[in-house]
Amino acid sequence: MKSVWSVGQIRAAEAEAIASTGPDALMQPAAYALSVHCGRLLGRTYGARVVLLVGAGNNGGDALYAGVQLLSRGAAVHAVLLTPDRVHPRGLLALAGAGGTVGTADGAPERLARADLVVDGIVGIGGHGPLRSPADALTATLRCPVVAVDVPSGVDADTGRVAGAAVLATSTVTFGGLKPGLVAGPGVRQSGRIEVIDIGLGPYLGEPVAVVLESADVAALLPVPRPGDDKYSRGVVGVVSGSAAYEGAAILSVGGALRAKAGMVRYAGSAADGVRARWPEAVVSDGRPTDAGRVQAWVIGPGLGTDGPARSLVAEVLGTELPVVVDADALTVVAAMPELVRDRAAPTVLTPHDREFERIFGPVGEDRLGATRRAAAEIGATVLLKGHATIVAAPDGRALVNPTGSGWLATAGTGDVLSGLIGAFLSAGGEPTAAAAAAAYVHGVAGAHAAGARDPVTTDTGAPIIAMDVVDAIPAALRAIRHSVTA
Q1: In angstroms, what CA-CA distances link 66 with 27, 144, 180?
Q2: Does 197 share its domain with 222?
Q3: Considering only Cβ atoms within 10 Å of each terminal Cβ, which end of the chain, N or C, has fewer?
Q4: Do residue 256 and residue 171 come from a single domain?
């Protein structure tokens, strides 16, 4: 797992470290690592044309010192001073002394047009709001690779908010630890590939505000059959979904649970004929959910409707003492009757998108991580907020971020598949927050496999998919995640 710390935590840790080491002691290793990253991106440093966009303070200083390192390897480095009266003085002297050239924004467009690489050192983690003139116009014209220093300028490091003009980075080299704005919110799309550089802040940072899942974390959470297991010990999922109007929701949610290797799936909804026809492996009940037989976790909501009978089903399932995944229409019912979740002792996982979240908790706002954590604490349940970077928060404040979301998954029915996946992991005994986050990770990887994409995050490669493609790709996703750890 990769830990995430707030800007306040990073600032406090930097202050403690600097107090014992000196003003530039953190900057030098940061700048060296930044220069190494730039060299890798260039492929050949000698003769490369590098332009530094330099703002005020330490962020600009990091860029200037990295420029010194690149000069020593044969690059031609030019610094554009966007705030000439507030530039980092020692960094500027070092760059000039090493043979770098310096100019202002007036001559920058021609330099930028010929650049092989641009380093964004305009605004650091303390910046708020969009880029201002002349930085906004200069960065809008960039066509070469761009490396952001710590955070892309124009991105709020604490929330990921992008209020207007902002740098679109090819990659971001961030120091001391991940910041929330790099992993949640619109800032994710501006940051490109992220490299975290350890500059010795670890002893001063304290508890992270969130962690970002990696393949090894998810592989450790995946339910794996043991010798002697049977269908009951591997987990039995009960699914209450679908209706005459939305039979597909039942088929997809049951499919997600089956493909995630639940030992058994019991379906207890009004789309029984469709489920029987598509999934002969499912055990279909025509009665009430509580009469369906032995179940270890429930999934309720996709395509269910919100009329009186549907509300009765939601109340019945949430009235059990079993873990429950609440999705889609069941979330609308909970918005009207939140006590159905607040009064539960058993684990509950809510899986809203932004509009569903708003019905229960109010607008998500600009701070997606903070909003999800507050919602989980308020309702006493795990909350999974869907999005480009899915956030999963526990009532105790723990938060996990899933980085495998992709635009290919933005199609009808994929959320139904996710609810079945979560139900399968819960039925196998998974801790609710970890199970939900692991399921989201698998869901994202399955989407990438279904689309034929090289990367589970971007849409640069691949092709459009439908929700059933994601169902069918779940086994391949599970194999890929396990293989990435054992390879």
Answers
A1: 9, 18, 25
A2: no
A3: C
A4: no
pLDDT of residue 462: 80
How many separate domains does the chain show?
2
Q: Summarize pLDDT for 122-145 with one digit per residue, the tens.
A: 999 988 899 999 999 999 989 999
Distance CA 174, CA 62 (A): 11
Q: Match 């549907």 to its residue by tokens.
A: 310
Claim to verify: residue 156 and residue 257 sit in the same structural domain: no
Instruction: Provide the token pair at 456.
Output: 């589970």
Report DSSP state, residue 48: -
For residue 288, the one-letter residue type is R
Token look-up 């207890």 returns 268
- Asked whether residue 121 falls in the same domain as residue 206, the answer is yes
- pLDDT tens, position by position, 377-395: 999 999 999 998 999 999 9
CA–CA gap between residue 100 and residue 445 (Å, rounded): 44
Length reported for the chain: 487
> Is the overall model pTM greater than 0.85, yes or no?
yes
How would DSSP label each residue in 110-164? HHHHH-SEEEEES--TT--S---TTHHHHHHT--S-EEEESS-TTB-TTT--B-S
Measured torsion, CA atoms of residues 272, 276, 277, 282, in degrees rounded to the nearest 10: 130
Which residues, 6 or more positions from 445, have their beta carbon under 8 angstroms from its beta carbon?
404, 456, 477, 480, 481
pLDDT at 229: 79
Alpha-carbon dihedral angle through residues 320, 284, 326, 467, given to the nearest 10 degrees: 170
